[in-house]
Amino acid sequence: MKTKFLLSLLVIVSMISCKNKEEEKPVEEVKANTFDVIVDLDIKKDDELILFYKDPSIAYFDAKNTVYYGVKGKDAPQTIVFSIPEGILPNDIRFDISSKKDQEPITINSVTLSFEGRNFKIDKKDLLKYFTPNEFIKFDETTGVATFSSNGENYDPFFLTKPAIYPEIEKVRGAKM
Prior knowledge:
Strand content: 35-45%
């Protein structure tokens, strides 16, 4: 009787342990479904870059609709990714390329818009086709180098979009704006 009990107990324990092993599955990392603006650049000094975005419900760029990216200066190219909050599909962007008055020239190698596997890449030679630098930036499209100036205490270098980028944003979004 004891043997039957022990044998039954052993069978039950082995079945439970086998069942537990089957249920353990590797945890998959779930990436948020975000619209990303990916910038490949060379920046030698630490800085904070900012991406402003609008969707059809927003008339003007404002501080609420921004993504900040603190970047560490390096002597090598680096890629930074601005992920717009999930559920927001922008129809316009503004890229603030520097917050530090003493920033050295920055080389922009490319800017890529990405959403759900759809991408649009803008190389440095085409940057001025899709973006306009403001008065604080001098941009050389052959080298991709942005140099900065200030106007007294004023310093706010940024790139605004040109109309040529809107059809490309629509394609990446996968929907008309």
